[in-house]
Design goal:
The complex is a heterodimer of chains A (313) and B (234).
Chain A (H helix, E strand, L loop, with lengths): L1 E8 L2 E5 L19 H10 L8 E5 L3 E5 L3 E9 L2 E3 L2 E2 L5 E4 L4 E4 L4 E9 L29 E3 L27 E5 L8 H9 L2 E3 L7 E5 L10 E6 L4 E3 L7 E3 L6 E4 L1 E5 L4 H5 L6 E2 L1 E3 L2 H22 L4
Parallel strand pairs in A: 12-21
Antiparallel strand pairs in A: 1-4, 1-11, 2-3, 3-10, 4-9, 5-8, 5-10, 6-7, 6-9, 12-19, 13-14, 13-20, 14-17, 15-18, 16-17, 16-19
Helix pairs in contact in A: 1-4
Chain B lengths: L5 E4 L4 E5 L6 H17 L4 E6 L3 E6 L6 H15 L9 E8 L7 H8 L3 H10 L2 E7 L4 E5 L14 E4 L3 E5 L2 E4 L4 E3 L2 E6 L19 E6 L2 H4 L12
Parallel strand pairs in B: 5-13
Antiparallel strand pairs in B: 1-2, 2-4, 3-4, 5-12, 6-7, 6-13, 8-11, 9-10, 9-12
The chains are: A alpha+beta (313), B alpha+beta (234).
Chain lengths: 313, 234
């Protein structure tokens, strides 16, 4: 079943699911929705499994024409979605009619929105996932005229649901992002570590799904910036010779030879997905035990959201 | 008693097992033995096992296993890895056309290393390169074994686009790029064998420990390999 025709593809819109696991040893990053929580909730709202393919919409101007009556939900950053000119409430199920236009008008908060359709979007499968990873020759960004199909059209009706307002994550760049120092913290001077943890860094315009380049005070190395190339964990913060940190994200290379001062904790990756180039970040060090505790809390929050929405998977 | 290997966390869902800090086939064997040991255990909490030159990264689900338990397991695996037999390396013979439009840096490389172009080709194409590991992006193989006579620096200004299959060298390393991409290596030849295809599994044919020879052939023998995968050239 046809879902949408792309009237204008927006700045960058891709099909994403929860990514591919187990292929890093073949040089392939996980990819997948940058804000995993929002992608899951969008799917739960329309009765899909959490890992169904959704649209990841960056900033504004995406313009879609509904080619059938559809049940959709939009979550994530607030990019002022409208249907036929009327504002479309986010974080809840919505029915739209054939011929209506879904338009993302302007950025109000965050950077990336997620649109799920009942039945999930169709897209080519690469290594078990529909997540587009352009640099890895796995699909492409949407283009004007593209026709988006529903993967698994079902007649069963979906109850209209909404996420209770108190469960909607607040998007704020002012809270520091939490990191675990290392694995090469011993390759920085104490002053370098202090610079990293006490300074404000601006997200450069050269930032994308691979990584965020940061601008701000230079971090001082001890014994140089290069190491023998090794695997990179998601959220790794590498500091090349120029002393400016690069945060590695969902489409990042899987190995590299620069020293890493710290690694973002898993629970803060989704929040980072909503930080816009030009905005500022701060970092705060936590211990491994604290990071695991935060992650347990985060997962139990996800679970309570899933139960509130009667979500699957 | 050796200080190696050492284990350190890399974020909250991965650890690095580090061996002696140098690039060395013997160290690579230890890394691979540990990778094989962990993979053969098929432990539910372990997500990815990633060998590199002198490190092995293990990613795990911290909600499924306590860190302390994970450490116990890894120490146990390190002990067990000492007695595991590695599979013999496979040898890939990739038809490669050297020089001309396919090897734009051959002339310069020959000048830097003070050999004739023919000698550069002969030396390079006779080398059994060892695949240390697969990484970077799109399944790039990190190759070891470049003869010291062929040491050249990287380009001062990287090229913005190098075609897939370009075979090159820099800083004592060699590689064959798997997709069209920017690179600062010196490219002396091209193979038309398809090195990376995400539509199939596995997307690349090599694994750590394999060997590759870039066999010198004339253009008319190299081009027909277009679209075929490396596993056809074992």
């Amino acid at each position: 079943m046809r879902a949408f025709e792309v009237v204008h593809p927006g700045i960058q819109t891709t099909i994403q699911d929860l990514g591919r696991t187990g292929f890093m040893k073949y040089g392939t990053p996980a990819s997948g929705a940058a804000d995993r929580f929002s992608a899951r909730v969008a799917n739960w709202l329309v009765g899909n499994p959490a890992g169904a393919a959704v649209l990841e919409i960056t900033l504004f101007r995406l313009d879609l024409l509904a080619r059938n009556d559809l049940v959709i939900a939009i979550t994530g950053g607030d990019l002022l979605p409208t249907v036929s000119g009327n504002s479309l409430p986010m974080w809840q199920t919505a029915s739209i009619q054939k011929g209506e236009r879904v338009l993302f008008r302007a950025r109000r908060r965050g950077l990336r929105a997620y649109l799920a359709v009942k039945g999930g979007f169709q897209g080519p499968l690469f290594l078990g996932s529909r997540s587009v990873f352009v640099r890895g020759l796995m699909g492409d960004c949407l283009r004007a005229g593209d026709l988006l199909e529903v993967e698994n059209p079902r007649e069963i009706s979906v109850p209209l649901r909404s996420l209770p307002p108190e469960m909607i994550p607040s998007i704020s760049a002012s809270d520091p992002l939490r990191v675990i120092l290392g694995p090469q913290e011993d390759r920085f001077t104490p002053r370098g570590i202090d610079t990293f943890l006490s300074s404000e860094y601006r997200v450069s315009s050269q930032s994308d799904r691979m990584g965020y380049r940061l601008e701000g005070p230079r971090i001082e190395h001890w014994r140089g910036a290069d190491i023998i190339s090794e695997p990179l964990a998601r959220g790794a913060i590498q500091v090349p010779g120029d002393g400016l940190p690069i945060l590695l994200l969902w489409d990042a290379q899987v190995s590299g030879g620069y020293t890493k001062i710290a690694n973002l904790i898993s629970a803060d990756l989704d929040r980072l997905a909503q930080v816009m180039p030009g905005e500022s970040l701060r970092f705060k060090a936590v211990t491994l035990e604290e990071a695991h505790q935060i992650l347990r809390k985060e997962k139990s929050y996800w679970e309570s959201v899933r139960q509130a929405l009667g979500g699957q998977g | 008693m050796s200080d190696w290997p050492q284990i350190r966390p890399s974020g909250d869902s991965a650890v690095l097992v580090e061996f002696e800090d140098r690039i060395d086939p013997e160290i690579s064997r230890k890394v691979r033995a540990l990778a094989l040991t962990i993979e053969s255990e098929s432990s539910q909490e372990i997500q990815e096992v990633l060998p590199a030159y002198r490190t092995l990264m293990v990613t795990y689900d911290p909600l499924a296993i306590e860190y302390r338990k994970l450490m116990e397991k890894i120490h146990h695996w390190i002990e067990k890895a000492g007695s595991i037999a590695l599979p013999p390396p496979r040898l890939f013979r990739l038809p490669t056309v050297y020089g001309g439009v396919y090897g734009p840096d051959l002339v310069r490389v020959a000048e830097i290393v003070r050999l004739s172009q023919e000698e550069v080709i002969r030396t390079f194409s006779a080398t059994h390169f060892m695949v240390y590991f697969i990484g970077f992006i799109c399944g790039l193989a990190y190759l070891g074994g470049l003869p010291p006579a062929l040491r050249v620096p990287r380009l001062a200004t990287p090229r913005t686009l190098v075609p897939a299959g370009s075979v090159g060298l820099a800083g004592g390393q060699a590689n064959a790029v798997t997709t069209d991409q920017p690179s600062g290596f010196n490219y002396i030849g091209r193979t038309f064998v398809n090195l990376y295809d995400p539509r199939i599994f596995p997307p690349i044919s090599f694994v750590s420990g394999d060997e590759i020879v870039f066999v010198a052939v004339p253009e008319e023998e190299a081009v027909p390999a277009r679209g075929r995968k490396a596993a056809d050239f074992l």
